[in-house]
Amino acid sequence: MTVIASEARDERERTFSGRAGQLLTALSVAIAAGLVVLVGVRWYAYQWDFHMFYGAARDFAAGMSPYRGYGLSFFHPPIMLYVYRLFTFMPEPLAVTVWYVLKLAALGTLISIWNAEFVRLRLQASTVVFFILAYNGAIYADLVAGNVSIFEELLLWFGFACLLHARYLMFSICVIVAAQVKLTPIFFAVLLIAVCEKPRWRAFLGTLAGFVAVFSLNEWLQPALFRNFWAASAQLDERGVDCPSLLALIRDIFDRFFGPMFTSGSRIDELLFLAMVAVVGAVSWRALLSYRRSSSPFDQRLLIYFSCFVFALISPRFKAYTYIVLLVPTLYFLRTVDWRHRIPLVAGLMAVLVMFPQGYSLLPFRFAFELFNNYLPLFATGAVWFGYILVLHELSPAPWSPFERLLHPSLITDPRRKEPSVNQATK
How far is CA 241 from the centre of its chain? Predict the structure, then answer.
C-alpha cells in the first residue's frame, strides 16, 4: 500500500469537471438538505431517543425510576437526567424542535472543526455523498434517532483539536464530559500517552481521576437510581444493524450455531470478545510504537485517526450512529492511499461485493449472508483498521517479521523502505 506525500492530488482525478460536476454537487447537497428537513418536519415519527429522554426526565421529576431494562428504555447514568429535565419545562413539540436545532448547530460546528483541523472538506458531490452514506448513514441515523451522539462527537473532536495544539487540560475536560454519557470514550485518554511527543502521564492519570470523580456524582446524588442503572445496563443485548459491534457479532454467531440458550448460559462469548480485544490491542500498540520510534516528528493526526478504529473494534457496544467517529479517519485514509497501485485488490473486492448473496438468499448457508449485511459497518471498520496497520508499518523502517511480509508481499524486496511522511497529507 503506497502512501502519497500530499492529500492535494489533481482535482481531475477526484471529481467531475465543469457543469456536470456542479450539477452533481448541487444534487447531492439538495438530497442532504432534504433529509435534514424531512427529519425536522416529521418530528413526531422520528427522534424516538429524545422522546424517551423526555419521558425518562418526567418520570424522574415524578419520583419514578426510568430504568425499565427492556424496549426503548433509559440507559444513561442518572446524572444525565438533570440535563434532560431542562427540556421538560417546554411542551414536548417545542422541546423536540429545540433539541433538533441544537443538534444541527452541533453538526455544523463539528464539520467546521473537521475542515479546519483535520481534513479539507471540499464542497463536491463525492464528499457530500460520503457523509450521507458512509457506515450505513451514521449521521442520518443519529438525526433520525434523536440520540446524543453528535454532541458526544463534537466534544471528542474538539478535544482532539485541542490535543493537536497542546491544550491538554481542555482535551481532558472534553474526554471526561463525553465519557459521562456512554463511558467508553474514556478510552481516548490514552492519546495523552500515545500521541503526545512526550507522554503526558500526569494529564493521563488526571483525566482518569477526573472521570471517576464526576462519574461518582451518580452514586452521591442518586444512589438508588445508580443501582438501577447498572442493573438495566447488564441486560443490554443489542445486535445487528442497530448495534454492529464485535461483541454483538460474536453473540449472533454463537446463537446461530448453538442457540440463544447457550449464549445466555455461558460466558464464552465474552471471553472470546476479550481475547479478540487483546489481539487488536496488542497488534495496534506494536504498530504504534514501531511508527513512533521510526518517525520524528510523527503525525499526530494519523495516530488519532488510527485510535478511532481501535476504539470502534474494542467497544463492547457500538451503535450505528456512533460510527460518526470514523467518518473523517476513513475519508483521510481513502484520500491518502494511492489506489492506482491496488487495482487488482480493488477489482477483487468489487467481485466479492457483486457475487456475495444477499441476506434473503435461498442458499442453505444464507445465515452467513445475513450476518455480513447486518455487520457490514463492522467489517469495513476492520478492513480500514488493517489498512492503517499497513500504513504505520510502511512509515516505519523497522524490519518486518516473515508473517508481516506475507501480509504485504510488495515489501519483501526492501523491508526497510520508508515512504514519505504523511504530515502534509491533512492540510
Answer: 15
Can you tell me the mean pLDDT for 155-178? 95
User: Residues 394-407: pLDDT tens digits?
Assistant: 877 655 454 444 44
pLDDT of residue 338: 67
* Domain of residue 217, residue span: 11-411
| Residue 4 vs residue 76, higher pLDDT | 76
Q: Which of 96, 94, 155, 194 lies closest to 324 in space, CA to CA?
A: 155
Burial 201-228 (b: 16+ CB within 10 A, else e): eebbebbbebbeeebeebeeebeebbeb
- Is the residue at 285 inside a domain? yes
For 33-128, list the strands marked E by DSSP: none
- Give domain status of residue 322, yes or no: yes
First to last CA, the chain: 21
Residue 419 lies in a domain: no
**CA-atom Rg of the chain in angstroms:** 23
In a domain, 5, yes or no: no
Do the Cβ atoms of 190 and 172 come closer than 8 Å? no
pLDDT tens-digit readout, 51-110: 999 999 998 988 888 888 666 678 889 999 999 999 999 999 899 999 999 999 999 999
Q: How many helices (H) and strands (E) does the chain have?
A: 20, 0
425: nearest Cα among 124, 134, 9: 9
Report which of 291, 314, 54, 84 is spatially closest to residue 195, judged by C-alpha positions. 291
